[in-house]
């Protein structure tokens, strides 16, 4: 009841500007705007079909988080911003590490959400997920984040199981100015960023940026400090019938901390120095052949090196992707594409054969393979048919071959949409997607000591079948008048060959085994709403409900224990964001977050937090000053089972200064 009362009080606090005296000029501006300008109808999305589409034409669960909302939310990292998206669960493992998931199976090795930056995948082939500390960018230069919930394997392939997150940065011509920014918190954390845009000619523009931040992993005690540095460059050349874009960048983060090892008879201290480095280059080419016909190709590579004890290794990826779009016929539109990915992995620095039982770290991972080469090949096709003015269908399929498991996987989808009017649609769809295989599941041994302390050994399996999901979705979206937009999705999913880890106590050692002996079902509802109260005040709401039931199918190396903690009786997530332009110089913004989570055996305390931001800028050509308070009401709370015993949230205040000129 205490948390519910807190939530009500916070909502009342947020609602104050909604009922303040409205200004005549703001109302006039609102009434002069068309429904299409205010609603979701003219929002363009490119994640669903790899090309721009109007949101109102898409028979899928799509959400667009604008760069303005990200900036005004007061967040300092990309995963923090994703808390505003319906259906995404975001939690902290520490102040520097985040878990992000969609539609269940939340955890640090989450591999059912494909994450891209400007169309380039950033998941790790080592474990199939995304390590968020290495994903960074100047938030001021992010144009929007598009989130496609549900299976998207027919377009994007492996790991697009429960969703796709596409982080889209601003075009070069939008960032021709100079930017300097910095922030400093009451916990002695800081961040610095600079960007310089430039124009080489009327057809060629670019920018270069650098960002550095320093954060302690835990604010409640004297923990290690992480130093994260990111830099990049963009060149964009545009002609009448073609576009060429080149991007390159690098990221490095690291920290030092006290560590412990077992010398055969007792624990001893030592110093641990963790460093991770990544670099990438990306070339994109688009040729507009005739009106409505386009050919696009992309070539990118990335290099990653990490010496962290839980995921050591080096890998290099080369990816080639090409797509052909024919939208020249208003009734029948189609696209085809193919791609190849080549991955080279090096685990020579963490070998099982070199393991020394008298020099054992408190936590470490080793591999039974020294080096590996993996290839992934794919081809897809999709056709959109407008049968009548108000009824359309989408049929697509993708074939994908994984050399690691010698598996050919087929990911189809079928979707249909009926439009009652230009502002109201209902849609339904069914699709299948698969989880790409990972070397952590098939070739790594993870060893750590629990609180007993007993040694826990997580064993791999090279006999895992491909994990997959089939989801049935039903959606409805409507724009009421010019001011209110509503988007609703309900889904039911069937999960097969779900990979989990079950433990068996064998005295001094606990043996755990990676297994695919699980199946499951899940269902849920996701809601998004936008209310333009008046010209200077907007409210955004996002809510999701999830129930997940995991069943053990029996097996020699499993015992059903994973079904107990992975199943979810009910999960409720809510965010409510208010943006208020007090006048031309002042902005006051606030965001409420609410989480309720429970399963049959345990439940977390409800978490209710409030973030607030006050911004002042005398004029657009002047510096901007922002004061942000985060996690009001959430001090001491834990938002995930994985961290409930080791990490508690803290209240943070910080000052941010920025100047664009």
Can you identify the CATH class? Mainly Beta
Report the CATH architecture. Beta Barrel
Determine Rg (CA atoms, Å).
25 Å
Q: Compute the separation of the termini in Å.
A: 49 Å
For this structure, what is the CATH homologous superfamily? TonB-dependent receptor, beta-barrel domain
Which stretches of 5+ consecutive residues score pLDDT under 50? Answer: 18-39
Largest sheet: 22 strands, antiparallel, barrel
What is the fold named in CATH at topology level? Maltoporin, Chain A
Number of helices: 8
- What structural class results from the helix and strand content? mainly beta
Number of strands: 35
| Overall number of structural domains | 1
Helix content: under 10%
- The residue-averaged pLDDT reads 87
Give the strand content.
over 45%
Keywords: Cell outer membrane, Membrane, Signal, Transmembrane, Transmembrane beta strand, Transport
InterPro entries: Beta-barrel_TonB_sf (IPR036942), Plug_dom (IPR012910), Plug_dom_sf (IPR037066), TonB-dep_rcpt-like (IPR039426)
Family: Belongs to the TonB-dependent receptor family.
Organism: Vibrio navarrensis
């Amino acid at each position: 009841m205490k948390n519910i009362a807190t939530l009500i009080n916070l909502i009342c606090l947020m609602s104050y500007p909604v009922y303040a005296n409205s200004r005549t000029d703001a109302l006039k501006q609102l009434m002069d705007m068309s429904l299409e300008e205010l609603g979701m109808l003219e929002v363009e999305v490119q994640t669903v079909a790899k090309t721009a589409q109007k949101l109102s034409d898409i028979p899928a669960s799509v959400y667009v988080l604008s760069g303005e909302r990200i900036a005004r939310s007061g967040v300092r990292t990309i995963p923090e911003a994703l808390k505003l998206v319906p259906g995404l669960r975001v939690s902290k493992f520490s102040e520097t590490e985040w878990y992000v998931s969609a539609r269940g199976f939340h955890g640090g090795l989450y591999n059912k959400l494909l994450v891209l930056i400007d169309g380039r995948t950033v998941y790790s082939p080592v474990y199939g997920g995304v390590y968020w500390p290495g994903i960074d960018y100047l938030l001021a230069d992010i144009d929007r984040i598009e989130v496609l919930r549900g299976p998207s394997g027919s377009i994007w392939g492996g790991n697009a199981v429960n969703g796709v997150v596409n982080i889209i940065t601003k075009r070069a011509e939008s960032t021709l100015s100079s930017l300097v920014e910095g922030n400093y918190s009451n916990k002695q954390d800081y961040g610095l960023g600079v960007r310089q845009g430039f124009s080489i000619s009327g057809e060629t523009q670019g920018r270069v940026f650098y960002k550095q931040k320093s954060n302690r992993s835990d604010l409640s005690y004297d923990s290690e400090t992480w130093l994260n540095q990111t830099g990049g460059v963009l060149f964009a050349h545009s002609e009448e019938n073609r576009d060429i874009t080149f991007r390159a960048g690098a990221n490095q983060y690291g920290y030092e901390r006290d560590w412990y090892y077992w010398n055969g008879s007792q624990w001893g201290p030592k110093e641990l120095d963790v460093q991770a480095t990544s670099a990438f280059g990306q070339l994109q080419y688009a040729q507009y052949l005739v009106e409505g016909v386009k050919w696009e190709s992309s070539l990118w590579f990335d290099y990653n090196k990490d010496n962290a004890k839980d995921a050591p290794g080096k890998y290099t990826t080369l990816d080639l992707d090409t797509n052909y779009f024919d939208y020249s016929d208003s009734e029948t539109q189609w696209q085809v594409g193919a791609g190849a990915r080549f991955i080279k992995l090096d685990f020579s620095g963490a070998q099982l054969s070199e393991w020394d039982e008298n020099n054992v770290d408190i936590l470490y991972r080793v591999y039974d393979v020294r080096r590996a080469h993996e290839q992934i090949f794919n081809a897809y096709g999709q056709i959109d048919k407008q049968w009548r003015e108000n009824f359309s269908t989408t049929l697509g399929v993708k074939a994908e071959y994984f050399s690691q498991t010698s598996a050919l996987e087929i990911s189809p989808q079928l979707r249909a949409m009926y439009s009652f009017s230009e502002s109201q649609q209902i849609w339904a769809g069914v699709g299948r997607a698969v989880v790409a295989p990972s070397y952590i599941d098939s070739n790594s041994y993870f060893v750590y000591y629990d609180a007993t302390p007993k040694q826990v050994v997580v064993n791999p399996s090279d006999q895992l079948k491909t994990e997959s999901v089939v989801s049935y979705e039903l959606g409805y979206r409507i724009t009421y008048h010019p001011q209110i937009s509503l988007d609703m999705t309900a889904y039911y999913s069937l999960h097969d060959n779900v990979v989990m880890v079950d433990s068996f106590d064998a005295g001094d050692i606990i043996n755990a085994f990676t297994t695919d002996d699980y199946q499951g079902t899940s269902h849920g509802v996701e809601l998004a709403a936008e209310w333009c109260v008046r010209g200077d005040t907007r409210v955004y709401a996002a809510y999701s409900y999830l129930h997940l039931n995991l069943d053990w199918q029996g097996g020699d190396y499993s015992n059903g224990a994973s079904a107990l903690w992975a199943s979810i009786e009910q999960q409720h997530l809510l965010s409510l964001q208010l943006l208020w332009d007090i006048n031309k110089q002042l902005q006051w913004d606030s965001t409420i977050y609410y989480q309720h989570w429970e399963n049959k055996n345990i439940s977390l305390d409800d978490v209710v937090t409030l973030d607030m931001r006050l911004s002042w800028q005398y004029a657009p050509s002047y510096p901007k000053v922002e004061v942000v308070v985060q996690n009001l009401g959430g001090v001491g709370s834990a938002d995930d089972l994985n961290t409930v015993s080791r990490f508690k949230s803290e209240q943070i205040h910080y000052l941010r200064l920025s100047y664009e000129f």
